[in-house]
Amino acid sequence: MLQAVLFDFDMTLIDSSDAMLNSFRLLSERFGFPPVTRERLMEFIGLHDEAYWREAIGGISEEILDYYRQVCLPSELPLFRPLDGTVQCLKNLRRRGLATGCATNRRTGDAILRQTGLWDLMDCSIGAGQVPNPKPAPDMLLLAMEKLGASPECTVYVGDTDLDVAAGVAAGVRVVALTTSTDEKTLHRAGAWRICAAPSELEGLLAGEGLLAPDDGNCRPN
Asked: Which InterPro entries does this entry report, sorted A to Z (predicted)?
C-alpha cells in the first residue's frame, strides 16, 4: 500500500498559467520582449531559475529581476488557483491515510499554497531552495520522503513535465503524469508509470491499481 503521494506545483496542484502570462505581459511592456503565449509557456514551465528565464526571454539581468520582484510578483499571487479537482483529490487521499506533499522547482511554493488554501492539505513542502539540485535530479523527492518517513516503493509522484518524470524515476518512485502541460507521448517516452488528464482521476487510478487502503472515512482527518 502507498504511504505518500507527492505533487509537483505548477500545472499539477496549481494552475499558474494566468499568473505567469500576466508577468510576461508586464515584462514585455516594460522591456520590449516578444509576448509569451500560453503554448510557449507550457514548453518551459517546469524549468528552474536560469533555464526558465533563458527559455522565456533569453536570460535575466538584475534590472529585469528587480522589476519582476517589485512589480510582477505582487500581481501574480491573486491569479494562482488550484487545478479543478485538486482540493477534493488531496482530501480524499488524506482520508485514506496517505501523507501528501509538494516538491517544486520553484525556490518555494509555500506562500502560494497558503494563498490558495492548499497549505493545510500538505504534510511537507519542498522547494528547489532546500536541496542542492533541482529537478530532474531526485534530491527534493528524496528529502520529501525522508521528512514523511515514506519509502520509494510506497510513494507516488504526480507531475506534468518530462522533468517531473525524470526526477521520479531517479528517486525510484512511481510517477503519475498529468497532461495539463505536456503531451502524452512525451510523458510516456520520459518513463511515466501512468498518465491521466486531471487530479480528479488520481484516486480512482491508484485504487484501481490496488495501492490504496479501503476508504472507510476513518483513516485520518483532513
From this structure: HAD-like_hydrolase_sf, HAD-like_sf, HAD-SF_hydro_IA, HAD_2, HAD_sf, PGP-like_dom2
CA angle 197–203–207, rounded 5-degree value = 120
| Confidence check: pLDDT of 173 > 90 | yes
Can you read off the three cell numbers belonging to residue 12? Answer: 499539477
Other beta carbons within 10 Å of 210: 7
Give the CATH architecture of domain 4-14+81-209: 3-Layer(aba) Sandwich (3.40)
Global pTM value: 0.92
> Which candidate, 160, 163, 144, places its Cα nearest to that of 152?
144
Residue-wise pLDDT for 67-114, tens only, equals 999 999 999 999 999 999 999 999 999 999 999 999 999 999 999 999
CA distances from 20 to 14, 25, 41, 80, 200 (A): 12, 9, 8, 9, 24
Burial (CB count <10 Å: 0-12, 13-18, 19+), residue 189: exposed
* 130 vs 94: CA distance, rounded Å: 25
Q: Left if phi > 0, otherwise alpha if psi is -120 to 50, otherwise beta: which for 52?
A: alpha
